[in-house]
């Protein structure tokens, strides 16, 4: 469907043409008519399907031709990067329709705060904001949304995953009840449906199935223990030229150790996570897009909504818990008819998540075991059934439930965890030959013993310090 077939003003059509938008994507084709008609909307479509333009184009069409003294539309997003990206798109489209916008997000210095305050006070046509920073402005009393007619929750599922539910509801208490509300989400868990019932009025629903990764993506799965992951990755990348790679890790504590290890091996790498300062994140992201360095190590802050083209590789250092997040991650490569490679490293504890990916794809995925051939030791055996019922001790829990009082439990004696069983390892030490230290190891509970008669009670130093 061509954009000329929508009931859009001429200046908006000129803006669409300037952005080289040709044919509407499925989500745009279905969403734009509902938004133009003023209906509330709940839309589910994966990243990369054109969700942002699906709501920006009709909202710009409305905002630019409505009589608003203050802000006409508010877009809530989970991350600063997505706020900046949407603001840039509005600036490109808004040039032709005369719409103004500003991104409101945390991590700014004084001048940026003042600029945000000015825009919120005087009223930009469209505000794009992260919930936390917007609430900080709202609580100071100078923000007024009395003219607001459109509210958009973009990446709603991600915002709920990040714990923004209470912030979203608080923000909505400042908004007019008579408004159009749009929810866009990449997945549709039950909590999204619950939120939709609370904030949407007789909404239209659009649900596009999660598409399979493009055939142009070479998906590779390797079995490896945590201490084998970096040496294995170095072998896989050996001889690869013109690399442009994003490595995703589920734990932000792993970002810097991985970056240090890659640098010691002569590979240019920088990291980005929610702990990074905003200015630093923007510089790192800009330099990576400009090919100033080849490898970006990131948490899921980048897995959705960030437009990075022409990646040669995507590496899942940890298997995503949600199979749809796996699709979003590897969807960063093989864009615009190019080819790409997606590598996923599977340790003992992530095998159950691979089963979820296989169920989504409705096929079994090939898992390679090559660490022994590389002299890195045996790889873990792929034995996911023991994780399906809640871990390796699930059978023991069942036995204990069946046993009556006084019955002998099948539970094995507790053994202190070895360093390689740790859930968090100083990965930088793997490639450097340094001693690997383990953290988060289970601690043995100190049992209190009743002091013997006529003897002074011994005070636990830990307890004394805590008191």
TrEMBL record:
Family stated for the protein in its record: Belongs to the DEAD box helicase family.
Keyword Heme attached: no
Annotated region (Disordered), positions in chain: 379-467
GO molecular function annotations of the record: helicase activity
Limits of the DEAD-box RNA helicase Q domain: 1-29
Protein name as catalogued: RNA helicase
Gene3D superfamilies with a match to the protein in the record: P-loop containing nucleotide triphosphate hydrolases
Residue stretches of biased makeup (Polar residues): 458-467
All residue ranges annotated as the Helicase ATP-binding domain in the record: 32-206
Protein's organism: Dyadobacter endophyticus
Source organism, top-level taxon: Bacteria
Motif (Q motif): 1-29
UniProt biased composition (Low complexity): 427-439
Keywords: ATP-binding, Helicase, Hydrolase, Nucleotide-binding
Helicase C-terminal domain segment(s): 232-377
Keyword ATP-binding among UniProt keywords: yes
């Amino acid at each position: 469907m061509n954009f000329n077939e929508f009931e859009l003003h001429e200046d908006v059509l000129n803006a669409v043409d300037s952005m080289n938008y040709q044919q509407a994507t499925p989500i745009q084709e279905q969403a734009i008519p509902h938004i133009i008609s003023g209906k509330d909307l709940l839309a589910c479509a994966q990243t990369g399907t054109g969700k942002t333009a699906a709501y920006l184009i009709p909202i710009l069409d409305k905002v630019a031709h409505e009589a608003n003294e203050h802000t006409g539309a508010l877009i809530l997003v989970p991350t600063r990067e997505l706020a900046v990206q949407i603001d840039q798109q509005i600036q490109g489209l808004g040039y032709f329709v005369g719409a103004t916008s500003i991104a409101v997000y945390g991590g700014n210095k004084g001048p940026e705060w003042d600029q945000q305050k000015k825009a919120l006070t005087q009223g930009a046509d469209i505000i794009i904001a992260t919930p936390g920073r917007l609430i900080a402005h709202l609580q100071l009393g100078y923000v007024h949304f009395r003219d607001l007619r459109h509210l958009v929750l973009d990446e709603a599922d991600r915002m709920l995953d990040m714990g923004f539910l209470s912030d979203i509801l608080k923000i909505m208490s400042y908004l007019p009840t008579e408004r159009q509300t749009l929810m866009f989400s990449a997945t549709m868990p039950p909590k999204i449906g619950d939120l939709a019932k609370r904030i949407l009025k007789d909404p239209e629903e659009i649900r596009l199935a999660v598409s399979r990764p493009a055939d142009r993506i070479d998906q590779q799965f390797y079995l490896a223990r945590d201490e084998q992951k970096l040496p294995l990755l170095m072998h896989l990348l050996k001889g690869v030229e013109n690399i442009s790679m994003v490595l995703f890790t589920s734990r932000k504590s792993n970002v810097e150790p991985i970056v240090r290890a890659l640098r010691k091996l002569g590979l240019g790498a920088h990291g980005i996570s929610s702990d990074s300062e905003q200015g630093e994140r923007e510089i790192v992201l800009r330099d990576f897009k400009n090919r100033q360095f080849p490898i970006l190590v990131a948490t899921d802050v980048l897995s959705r909504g960030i437009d990075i083209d022409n990646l040669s590789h995507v590496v899942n250092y940890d298997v995503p818990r949600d199979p749809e997040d796996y699709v979003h991650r590897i969807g960063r490569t093989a864009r615009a008819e190019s080819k790409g490679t997606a590598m996923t490293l599977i340790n003992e504890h992530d095998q159950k998540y691979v089963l979820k990916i296989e169920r989504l794809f409705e096929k079994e995925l090939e898992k390679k075991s090559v660490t022994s051939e590389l002299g890195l030791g045996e790889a873990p055996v792929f034995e996911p059934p023991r994780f399906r019922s809640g871990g390796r001790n699930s059978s023991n829990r069942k036995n204990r439930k069946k046993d009556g009082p006084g019955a002998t439990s099948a539970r094995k004696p507790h053994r202190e965890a070895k360093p390689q069983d740790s859930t968090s390892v100083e990965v930088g030490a793997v490639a450097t030959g340094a001693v690997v230290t383990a953290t988060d190891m289970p601690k043995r509970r100190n049992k209190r013993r009743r002091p013997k008669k006529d003897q002074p009670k011994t005070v636990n130093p830990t307890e004394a310090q805590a008191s």
